[in-house]
Amino acid sequence: MRDSHPQALFDVLEESLAKTSSPLQTIQRNAKAINKLNQAVKGLLPTEVKPMCRVANYRNSILVIEVANASWMTRLNYEKLNLLSALRGSILPSLSSIDIRINPVLMRKKVENSSLSNQTVKTSQVPNGRKISTETAKHLLHLAKNSSKGLKERLERLAALAGESTSTTNRKD
């Protein structure tokens, strides 16, 4: 009878790969090789380029590197000859060329990560971004006295952002 308890995916893969030589084993070996190549390539690149590129594939003696956008592609093209000779000398003697391609997903991931960190910084610095000074609220209330009904309500709601002490009306959301 089968085991019905949950198993880690890594354990299942290792178990199946140990039994037979399968396409799954080939895929896993290629993924590990590309991962090692990615680490080696990033070790050879300048610091500012590292987060904006990754090794996508190595096939027929051609290394495929993906970059976030065209400007990073241009920057990496300047490093291409140095990278090619360093990789030939240490890791891939059969490497014939490097193909650089644009993958915008890399930029999106970078932007998402930076926007998440910016949001946490902004929320911790400004607990309530909808506040105005009490002096400004007083001026708004004074202006509201001589305004039409609709404008008066809006000015009073705006003045209420300074706090309950300066507002004569309750804030409507």
Automatic annotation (TrEMBL):
<dbReference type="Pfam" id="PF05258">
    <property type="entry name" value="DciA"/>
</dbReference>
<dbReference type="InterPro" id="IPR007922">
    <property type="entry name" value="DciA-like"/>
</dbReference>
<protein>
    <recommendedName>
        <fullName>DUF721 domain-containing protein</fullName>
    </recommendedName>
</protein>
